[in-house]
Every structure is written in C-alpha cells, then in structure tokens.
Input
Amino acid sequence: MSDRLYIFDTTLRDGEQVPGCQLNTVEKIEVAKALEALGVDVIEAGFPVSSPGDFNSVVEISKAVTWPTICALTRAVENDIRVAADALQYAKRKRIHTGIGTSDSHIKYKFNSNREDILQRGVAAVAYARKFVDDVEFYCEDAGRTDNEYLARVVEAVIAAGATVVNIPDTTGYCLPEEYGAKIRYLMEHVSNIDKAILSTHCHNDLGMATANTVMGVINGARQVEVTINGIGERAGNTALEEVVMTLRSHKELGIDTNINATKIASTSRMVSSLMNMPVQPNKAIVGRNAFAHSSGIHQDGVLKNRESYEIIDPKDVGVDENSIVLTARSGRAALKHRLHTLGINLEPEALDKAYEQFLKLADRKKEINDDDVLMIAGEHHKARSRIKLDFLQVTSGVGIHSVASVGLDIAGEKFEAAASGNGPVDAAINAIKLIIRRKMLLKEFLIQAINKGSNDVGKVHMTVEYDGAHYNGFAANTDIVAASAEAFLDAINKFVR
Ligand code: KIV
Ligand code: ZN
Output
C-alpha cells in the first residue's frame, strides 16, 4: 500500500497570475472541471479580495465542482478572510489558505515588523479563519529562506491555533533539493504537534529545481504538493503537476502515490496551454511535443526493439496517443469519435452526428483538424439547445465604407430579422442583434484569439455582457470572427433570456 500524497492544484491562482494568462470565469470553470476529472484533491480557485473577477470565479467554480476541495487565498488580514469565506459559500468542501511572510527579509522590509509580531499575526489569522471553515491552510511565505528554528515555532503555533495544513513555500525558488528536503525533515522532527497537520510543498522554479525540491520535500515527510499544469506560474513557474505525479509512478520504491488519472495529463495540458495562450516548450518533461519523440536512428531502432530501451514512461500512460490519426475532410465518424474519446469527451450518438456535421463543415475550410478544433466542435452541439440561435449573418465592411450587418435570429422557432450599421463589422452585427433583442445590456469584455496559426484558423471569442446588474459570459469559435462574435454575444444572452 502506498502512502497517499494530496495534489493541490494552483493553476487557477499562482498560474493565472502570469501576465497574459488571465482567464475569464467560463474558461476557469472549464479548467476546474478538467482538474476534477484529472483527480486533483484541492483546487486553489483564486484570491477573492484581489478583484471582483477573482471573487466571482471562486463562487462559480465552487458551484461547478463537486469532489475537490475549493481553496481561496488570503493575506493574514481579517477582511481578506471574510471575503474568502463569502466567496466559498457554495463549495461542497472548502478551505481558506491564509499566511504571512516569515523570512527575516519579509519581516523587516515587507512588514517593518519583528518575529514575535509576525507569529502572533499568523496565529490570529488561523484562529479567525477557523470561525468560518474547518479546513485552514497556513503559508509561511518565503519559508525557503526562513530560519528553521523560527519556522518550526511558527508551524507549531499555527497548528495549535487550528491549521490543518501548513505550506512551506520556496517562494523565490532559491533552495537546493537537499536543503529543502532537510527543512521539511527538520519540521517533521521538531514540531511537537506535527501529527495534527499535513506539511505542504510549494516550490517555484527560478533555478529549475522546483520538481526536485518538491520530490525531496515529499521524501522527507510532506504529504501535500502545490503544483500547476505545465508548471505555469509567477516568473519561471511553479512545480509541474505532471512531473511530480510521473516521478512517483516511475519510482514505486518510494511507496507514495496520488489520486491522479494520468491518462488525462496530456489533454489537460493541451487545454490549459491553449486557454492560457501559453505554449508548452517542445522538450518539456512529460507534456512537451518531443517528450516521447525519438529522432536519432539508434534510439528509434532501440525503441522499436523494446520500448523500455529509451523510454521510462509509456506515452499511453499520460494520454499521449502515438498512433493518433490526423483528422481531415476524409476522416469518418469513427475517427472523430475516437479523437473525442482520447480528449475525454464521449458524445451520445445524436450529439456525435451533429458534431460530425460541424466537423465536415470545418474540415472543408481547414486542411487539418487539430485537438482544439475538436474540443470547439464538441462544444457546438450544446448550442443546438439554445433558445436564441443565429440563423444568418451578412456583413458589408471595408476601408472607407461604413459597416452594415443583416442578422436573422431564430428565437424558440420564430424568425426575426434586422439590419444595422456600426463602426466595424462586429459592432454592426451586435447592433443588429440588439434591435431584435431589446434588453438593456452592455458589452463589458470582448476578446478574440486565434487558436493556432494561419489565416484559415479558428478564432475564439469571449464576451462578458452585463444585464440587470449581473455578468454573463459567452463563448464561440468559428473560422469567421464576425460570426464568432455574434454567436458569443448570443451565447451570453441565452444565459439570461428565458
Ligand atoms: O509562492 C508563494 O509563497 C505563494 C504563497 C502565496 C502561497 O504563492
Ligand atoms: Zn507561489
């Protein structure tokens, strides 16, 4: 029997802090559901006091996810903790993650304070958080550079105050693996009440040692690891989930394992990379494009004779299908079904028929259909059930002329048409839709992204529409970005028009 290691995923908090990686609430829910399917134990969903968007994401993820504990970050500040507790109100299992800097550098320069005061503030934060939830994690920020004797006093005091998990972050990615392992061992041996809590690792990758440090932490007694998909995160990133999970699976002699369904690693990695616009480096361990590619003749020969000659992991174990069929306009329904299955989507026969129709239309416009396209198509059949559908859209636009759009909508089977002008094709299309759906709604956010590359590519559109004081998110993807924009607008409207 292996010892159980808990996976705390912070892709949506530490990962999402990276400039350019921000997700809207709909995308965060998509990622949270993928993390749930992957089998993570805890999802750190955001830092609710930091912005209304973060607050809302924690609320919505709490509603959308069933099994993992939903965690919200705070500083050791009462208002942060109250706001986090409020954001977590719908979570089936909830945790508040509070903490403070404990290194001398943080104490002196960040807080202009002293060790005793910081210890008391930590204790007070934990005691306050326990008024709202039973599960409280405490982080000793910059623990990597904190003196071990003082760190042990802080850990003991916050456990006595009710912390269930104590996080030992190497915030700056400074530690050597031996040093970090020794720190965890020191705490295991010198904190008298350590049996009442779990120690957690949280390693940054500034010197490229995040995974090594995390594994050393685990070997020395930590039983929770804080990780992100693809190792994304502040600066050089956080420890990569896939690397820790597969290190433990490859080294069974360590006798430690997680609840992760590793066959979902590749598809989750692709989803996060594509939604966050963060390409995975080709030689990245486990999930890089070249992680299982053998280019030298000697290696190819060896692998063909016996895979284990040059591979320590069977690519199928992490969901990489080496024989994956390239999908084109000539691919059949079975090939699409197989690819959807590999991506973790199983459609009923009727939905599969609809998806296949969409697939053929897209394959006519694009030479090769990739996994992002397939994921987009799989989302399309949901729209068939929408009350308001886009029947047709015609747009005239160009340089030196005013854009004009004619729109046809099908609202619960009834047909409506309108035409309007605008300062561009999207504006004209939205204005025409507004002439049919006469509600006081405001477009708050509008984001267009190309999924891959090439002028025949699919454009993804996200919109946030404000109606009656609430925000509704819409999403659509199409090779025509004006059509995608109109569909995303309708997708949002469908969420409040009944
Ligand atoms: O790196 C760090 O110290 C953190 C804490 C806020 C947990 O992300
Ligand atoms: Zn961090």
Observations:
- The chain has three domains: 6-275, 293-381, 386-493.
